[in-house]
Each structure stands twice: as C-alpha cells, then as structure tokens.
Amino acid sequence: MTTTPDPTMTEITEAVTLGRTGDTAAARAGLSRLWDRIGPAGDPFHRCVLAHYFADLHDDPAQALVWDVRALDAAATLTDARVQRHHDHLAVAGFYPSLHLNLADNFRRLGSFDAARDHLAAARQHQGALGDDDYGALIRRAIEEVAEAVERRSTERRESAP
C-alpha cells in the first residue's frame, strides 16, 4: 500500500509504462526530463528508481551501465524510512540483489567477466533480502542465468532481460 502520494513516482511510472508498451523514445525523453529536474543531489529514492528503470531502456550495455551505477550510488544514500514513505513494506536491502544483478549483466555484455563475477557475488550476498514471491524468484533465476552466461563468456543479450 502506498503511504504517501508522490507525483514524481507517478511520472516515473508513466514513463516506464510508455517504455514497456514499446515507446522507448518517449520513455527515455520523459525520464531524461525528470532526471534533469530531480538533479544529482535530489531525492535518492527518486534517483534510484528512475536510474534503475532508465537503464532498462538502453540496448547498449555501456549506456545501461551508466544508469545502473547511478541507481546503486543513489541506493547507498537511501534509508528504509524514506522508501517506506512510498510503500510501508519496502526495505532498501531488497533493492541490492537487482541492482547488482543489472551491473553484473552489463559488465558481462561488455566482456568484463571479472567485474560481472564481483557483482554476481554481491547480488548473491544480498539475495536473502528477497521475498519468497514471484519477484524474488525472478531475481534469483536471473542471477543464475547471468552466472551461466559469464561462465560461457557470452556477451549476448539474455532473452529474459528487461
């Protein structure tokens, strides 16, 4: 349940929805405008969520990597109190498996397999924060998919990637 209405989160969600329905150009434009408005010192929850989803809108792993690093950096300044203003059951610890997974996948696609392994290790270290639900299963499965791709030294995009 959302505990506090948040117009910025509504705008982020609207842009992400555009991207998921195929209008990635409009989604990127909307998120870019929001990023400019939020700024590098803005609300870390907004920066983390926006950057996390913005990364998914880039086919180029180097561009995605930039946004995924921004998401991880913003998460480092987040508190549970802040994320629970958005949803009372959220915890920052639950963000880390996905954030590190995305970084691992970007590094893998760029052929930086050692860096990918480091982030896979971090994702695994934090996966205990995931629930026993569909989302937790999705992230755990993706961690294993990326690990298998790293072992094969594959730089191909995963079919299940966002």
Kindly summarize this structure in a few lines.
The chain is built from eight helices and no strands.
Notable traits:
0% strand; 162 residues; mainly alpha; 2 domains
**What is the chains' assembly state?**
single chain
Helical run tally? 8
Shape category: globular
Helical content class: 55-70%
**SSE order:** HHHHHHHH
Strand content: under 5%
> How many extended strands?
0
Low confidence ranges: none
Give average pLDDT, whole number.
Answer: 94
How would you describe this protein?
The protein has 162 residues and is mainly α. It folds into two domains: 84 residues, no CATH class; 67 residues. The protein is built from eight helices and no strands. Helix 1 packs parallel to helix 3. The longest helix has 18 residues.
